[in-house]
Amino acid sequence: MKGAIGSSLTGALYVRTLLLVAVTGMLMAGVLFAIVRADINQRADQQLITATHVLHLLMREEFTAEDPKSRTNHDTPYRRLLSEEDLSAFRASAAWRQFAVFHFGIPAARPPRSDVEKGVAATPGFRTFDVGDARWRSYGLAVPEQRLLIVVAEPMQVRGGLILRVGEQLAIPIMLLILGSAVLLWLTLRRGLSAVQQLSATLANRSAAELEALHLPAMPSDLAPIIAALNGLLERVRAAIEHEQAFADQAAHQLRTPLAALKVRAQLLLRRAPPESEEHAALSDLLESVDRGSDTITQMLQLARLDAATLTRERVDLRELAGEVIADRALFAARAGADFSLTAPAVAIASTDPTPLRVALATIIDNAVEHAAGGGTIDVEIRCVGGRTALVVRDRGPGMDPERLSGAAGRDGDPRPGGGLGLAIARRAVTVLGGELLLENRDDGPGLRATIFLPD
Fold first, then answer.
1. pLDDT bucket at 269, cuts 50 / 70 / 90
2. Is this prediction's pTM over 0.85?
3. Which residue has the higher pLDDT, 244 or 157?
4. Same domain, 287 and 346
């Protein structure tokens, strides 16, 4: 799955954009977390300042100008400076805080915790110190008119816990944002690149003979250069095929003329030669060679024309088409001692081009008649094979060497003796249709089974 995503354009853009979104989201979360942490620390420091002012207001009612030494009680340090009600109210508001009071630099009230007392210093302003493994932060409020310094301290873990909870609350929305962005990004990319998939499907559905220019007006302007380049390539391929066809036509006509003249002269000489003479036999062999040469030229011309054929689909009655092809070759088959059988459903309609299909079926039947061993029946059947419409031709010829079946019917033609280019023409015609030609030896005895699979 990972390789498939990474190898596609959509997957590559998705991964890169998603990484960018994720990194951007994490950076935003980090910046936001830093801002929130700074704000929490600022607010906590402000609360320390407020706490010192509250203590000062509470002490003003109890504090007098007497000697502070007489007001210091090491056992109960708060009793001379704060009433029980004021002390309870302060502790209820922030039980984790500790405070100390200094008068003329002398401790007038000490924190209940001795370890905190060691870290508290008689200095105004903010200060951070360690108490064991914990960090504490204090603020000292100086009251010059009363020679008083009030210090309030609290552990940093209090604000650290608050920062952690805020971070946890931020993490869930950020993760949901990234996941939502991932889904929306994938849908957007798929929709945005659907034009590429449409172009790919259009090209994939074309046969080798469909070389017309692409006309896709709904395509985005970004694909216009690609479509223009494809149209240019199709035009060059079409021109090259037309040039090849013109050359093949010209070469065929140039070869037909001397072969026709040679055949006429050989026929005249054959009439003058004694029937049982060596000259008569040699001239007969010459005429057969000329006929084979003419047939080969005709086949080459037909193959070249198939290469330049343009596919035109229409509704074709396969039963009727097969019957016409068989009827056209009835006399040829009778001379070879062969006959035909046609098996087809009552209705066999396909959307295809009848011209290359007729060429393919006729060529396969001609090969079957030519290779039929002492006649026999050539079976032609129209049926559905694996959900695909197929035309099957079976003969009783010698069949093919199994090792050569896989390469049969290519440009080299029929590997059987005397096969010529017949099967190459048939395969090319089927390729023009967008179908497939399958050659197999028969399972029920000698012979070849040729199956034309039509496209869906």
1. confident
2. no
3. 157
4. no
Distance CA 399, CA 417 (A): 11
Task: Please tell me whether residues 295 and 386 are part of one structural domain.
Answer: no
What is d(CA 197, CA 223) in angstroms, rounded to the nearest whole number?
12
Same domain, 394 and 299: no
In a domain, 349, yes or no: yes
Tell me the mean pLDDT in the region 243-257. Answer: 77
Q: Which amino acid is at 295?
A: D
Q: Examine the domain organization and report whether 133 and 48 are in the same domain.
A: yes
Tell me, yes or no, whether 13 and 153 share the same domain: yes
**pLDDT one-digit tens code per residue, 224-244:** 888 888 888 888 888 887 787
What pairs with residue 130 in β-bridges?
A: 135
Tell me: the pLDDT tens digits for 317-351? 999 999 999 998 888 888 888 889 999 998 889 99
366 C-beta neighbours (distance < 10 Å), count: 18
Kindly state whether residues 381 and 407 are assigned to the same domain. yes
Per-residue model confidence (pLDDT) at position 391: 94
Is the pLDDT reported for residue 209 higher than 70?
no
User: Burial code of 193-207, b = ≥16 C-beta within 10 A, e = fewer?
Assistant: beebeebeeeeeeeb
Domain limits for position 382: 314-453
Report if residue 210 sits inside a domain. Answer: no
- Taking alpha carbons only, the member of 372, 382, 379 closest to residue 393 is 379
Does residue 194 sit within a domain?
no
pLDDT band at 77 (very low <50, low <70, confident <90, very high): very low
The domain spanning residue 297 has which CATH number? 1.10.287
Q: How many independent structural domains does the chain possess?
A: 3
Phi/psi of residue 452, each to 5°?
-100, 115
Asked if 254 and 286 sit in the same domain, the reply is yes
